[in-house]
């Protein structure tokens, strides 16, 4: 299945959840925000939302500083 991840084409296993994508990116447990097709996906729904062909996904992680 093809999606757009942070503006780049990416081929993924079909029927992948947002949580599985986050884990495959090595971002599990980090402070991140995920948006699918311009809608923010709450962390509590990451395991329920399945990605589909052509989805546009943005993953942003917080970087602390001072």
Structure notes:
- 11% of the residues lie in helices and 33% in strands.
- Strands 2-1-5-3-4 form a 5-stranded mixed sheet, with no helix packed on it.
- With 66 residues, it is mainly beta.
- The longest helix is centred in the first third of the chain and has 7 residues, at 18-24.
- The chain has 1 helix and 5 strands.
- InterPro entries: Beta-grasp_dom_sf, Mopterin_synth/thiamin_S_b, Thi_S, ThiS/MoaD-like.
- This is Sulfur carrier protein ThiS.
- It holds the Pfam family ThiS.
- It comes from Halomonas flagellata.
* Estimated share of beta-strand residues: 25-35%
Rounded to an integer in angstroms, the radius of gyration calculated over CA atoms is: 12 Å
Number of strands: 5
Helix content: 10-25%
Structural class, judged by helices and strands?
Answer: mainly beta
Mean pLDDT: 94
- Helical stretch count? 1
- Provide the low-confidence segments as ranges: none
Secondary-structure element series: EEHEEE
The biggest beta sheet, please? Answer: 5 strands, mixed
Anisotropy-based shape: globular
Taking the alpha carbons of the first and last residues, their distance comes to 40 Å
Q: Strands of the biggest beta sheet: in what spatial order?
A: 2-1-5-3-4
Pfam families: ThiS
Protein name: Sulfur carrier protein ThiS
Organism: Halomonas flagellata
């Amino acid at each position: 299945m093809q999606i757009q991840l942070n503006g780049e084409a990416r081929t993924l296993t079909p029927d992948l959840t947002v949580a599985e994508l986050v884990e495959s990116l090595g971002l599990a447990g980090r402070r991140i925000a995920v948006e699918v097709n311009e809608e923010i996906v709450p962390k509590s729904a990451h395991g329920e939302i399945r990605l589909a062909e052509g989805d546009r996904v943005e993953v942003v992680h917080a970087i602390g500083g001072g």
